[in-house]
Amino acid sequence: MTVAWSSPPLPMPWYPARVEDAWLETRTARTVVLDVPGWPGHHAGQHVDVRLTADDGYTATRTYSVASAPETGRLVLTVQLVTEGEVSPWLVGEAREGDELEVRGPIGGWFRWDESMPEPVLLVAGGSGVVPLMAMVRHRSRVGATQPFHLVYSARTPDHVIYTNELFALARTSPGLRVDRLYTRGGLPDEAREPGRLRPEDLPAVDAFPAPPVVYVCGPSGFVEAAAGILIGKGHDSGAIRTERFGPSS
Ligand SMILES: Cc1cc2nc3c(=O)[nH]c(=O)nc-3n(C[C@H](O)[C@H](O)[C@H](O)COP(=O)(O)OP(=O)(O)OC[C@H]3O[C@@H](n4cnc5c(N)ncnc54)[C@H](O)[C@@H]3O)c2cc1C
To answer: H or E element: which one contains 222?
Structure first.
């Protein structure tokens, strides 16, 4: 589908949303599917505000990237548990089919991809920063785009990789899609790379692509800063690097 590139109307309306389905992706990350009547659609990479309202009228609002490829009337989010948090424990541990909340958006004018962009794409994800990048991978597959897409995904351990089966499958069936995983705390027994934070050799140089890629980096602030520094050192133009930060630096 095509979604207009214009900004949403201001003030942005809140849409009532209903939990349609939910499942665990890892022990601490859960995908929540929302039915949102009137939802206008979104671009891959955009995010939404989610508002929860308690019985006494108390509200809490947080931001979540949309994990699904663009579609109308439906939103898929994937939420990583922040143990001491207010909203993520409810979305990961408590939200049930039929529960109601509100969403506002779509939000984000720069951190988005669609098939009108012909350049190769480099995606760099730290932890749950993979969510908006997965929307791009899913959208590329859905529209049959074939330019090189290279996802470098840093997770604590293999158990922390969100969308693991889908990523394995897509990397085998989508021409031009490459997925590299790296682990910061512990990998698989046959892993050649020593566990550890992102290193220069983990990211491809600009000349590894047939043309300079558009680069999307998403994750905790410290991860995003480290990745951007490495990318510039490997010849990527800072103007081609689009970043989104998810939480406190780590
Ligand atoms: C543009 C954008 C997109 C986002 N997309 C996603 C997404 O797709 N999936 C997702 O899981 N989260 C996403 N987030 C993060 C999300 O908005 C919340 O910050 C997160 O879910 C924590 O909310 P909470 O209410 O559980 O914790 P809070 O009650 O807000 O925080 C409680 C404590 O945890 C710390 N904390 C807050 N956030 C984090 C964090 N991410 N990591 C570690 N500690 C934290 C706080 O400093 C605080 O001390 C996104 C954030 C932004 C800005």
So the answer is: helix 221-233
